[in-house]
Amino acid sequence: HDVLTGLENRVALNVRLEQQLASARRHNEPAAVLFIDLDHFKKINDSLGHAAGDKLLMGAAERMKDLLRDVDTLARLGGDEFIIVLAGPLTPDSVTGVAVRLVESLSQPYQLAGHTAHSGASVGVALFPDDGEDAATLIRHADMAMYAAKREGRGNFQFFSPAMNAATHEHLLLENRMWSALNAEGFSLHLQAQVALDTGRVIGAEVLLRWHDSELGSVEPSRFIPVAEESGMIVPLGDWVLAQAMALLAEWQREGLDHLRLAVNLSARQFSGGALLERLDQLVARYGIDPARLELEITETAAMRDPENTRQLLRELRTRGFKLAIDDFGTGYSSLAYLKLFAIDRIKIDRGFVKDIEHNPNDAVIVAATIGLAHALGLAVVAEGVETQAQWGFLRDKLGDEAQGYLFARPMPASEFREFIRRQAQPVPGA
Predict the structure, then answer these.
(1) Which helix (H) or strand (E) holds 85?
(2) What are the residues facing 333 on neighbouring strands?
(3) What is the Cα 222 distance to its own chain's centre?
């Protein structure tokens, strides 16, 4: 048995599951394997201590036991992972009912070390015999389904589907190739110009990550960034981008281009990981750049994951002299709330609002109001995805500050961007 929770351990589970499956085959009955992973457990364990983490595991085990019948099996695989085996007779609906009650019960707060802690659970379900006929396959498929539940935003459940096999293969392939690319310089930076709306002059650029793989060819960010986020590889990848951006700023400084700034996106993991300040201090010392020339962008979703931590971190970054921006403004649920909460310099209006400002009165009103509000709070505004003269004209009339988009320049390699700057003796036609 598992020492901490008193539940069956991995060895006992395997024996019990084989017995259940043998019985299910004999009686021609279904069975179900549920893979449960507690959400945010590591964060609670790290912040409140191991004793609180242990108490949470024991509390979660008790809650799960209360939901099960005597014929069912509950085991702890290790860490914050548990397995439930439901014995027949079962229907997909009855299994769904158990999964719903599990998610509901485990989402209730815990009282730990004088604190109220919220965990929750992601649950994956595999059914015998449809999703596997042996213990190892069923557990593996339930595990895949659990990761699919996590990808959907945690705190829910998913049934296994064959497509998950392909998704897992793709995930592993991309993860392996990314490590190779990081070590073999397979990644590169592209820059998209940011211009002053009143003159069309380039004032800086956003840094965009590009990956050309020797086997896979060009891999779209929409394909590899979610894998990097999920696997944790986004942290070394993000570090590499920060180092490359600072090296580029140092180069520009030597070439007399020190009026330009670079904007770099920070991932949610980088932002909440705790090592960001130390890493930035090291890089600034190594490259000798002025921090004011590096703008750090976070999405509002990442900012609102832990508002208090965000507030403190932004304050620290600002003290060091970095510029700070909120990316994709308006796509979250709390935009106005954090404008007064966080110390930022500018907001970036999401391209989704800019795209239809010529034809959609609601988008036009939202963009105009956002510019007015930002200016009243002393913030600058960058509009993303500007592709037409009409959009540019609208934003200029509403006194927006800056913009980026294909009207001004497509994303391009850093070497091309340098030439683009040198050629820019005239502002964009029509200014």
Answers:
(1) strand 81-86
(2) none
(3) 12
Return the closest-CA partner of residue 82 out of 68, 94, 96, 70. Answer: 68
CA 322 to chain centre: 22
The one-letter code for the residue type at 325 is: A
- End-to-end, the C-alpha distance of the chain in Å comes to 74
Q: Which residues are CB-neighbours of 379 under 8 A, at least 6 positions away?
A: 339, 344, 345, 346, 347
15 to 142, 244, 293: CA distances (angstroms): 18, 53, 61
Q: Which two tokens stand for residue 282?
A: 């090291």
- Residue 120: what are its φ and ψ, rounded to 5°? 95, 175
Q: Where are the domains of the chain?
A: 10-161, 171-423
Distance CA 429, CA 362 (A): 29
CB 264 within 8 A of CB 295: yes
pTM, to two decimals: 0.68
421 burial level (CB within 10 Å; 0-12, 13-18, 19+): middle
Here the tokens at position 272 are 């909440």
Q: Which of the following CATH numbers is that of domain 10-161: 3.30.70.270, 2.70.70.10, 3.40.50.150, 3.40.640.10?
A: 3.30.70.270
What's the rounded Cα separation, in Å, for the pair 283 and 325? 20
Residue type, 199: T
Q: What is the CATH number of domain 171-423?
A: 3.20.20.450
What confidence tier does 91 reach under pLDDT thresholds 50, 70, 90? Answer: confident
Q: Which burial class, exposed, middle or buried, applies to 327 when counting CB atoms under 10 A from its CB (0-12, 13-18, 19+)? A: buried
Please report the DSSP string for 50-75 in residue order: HHHHHHHHHHHHHHHHHHS-TTSEEE
Tokens of 309: 């931590």
Kindly state the DSSP code that residue 87 receives in the 8-state scheme: P
Tokens representing residue 372 in the block: 């007015």
For 350-407, how does the pLDDT look when each residue is reduced to its tens digit (9 = 90+)? 899 999 999 999 999 999 999 998 999 899 999 999 999 999 999 999 999 999 999 9
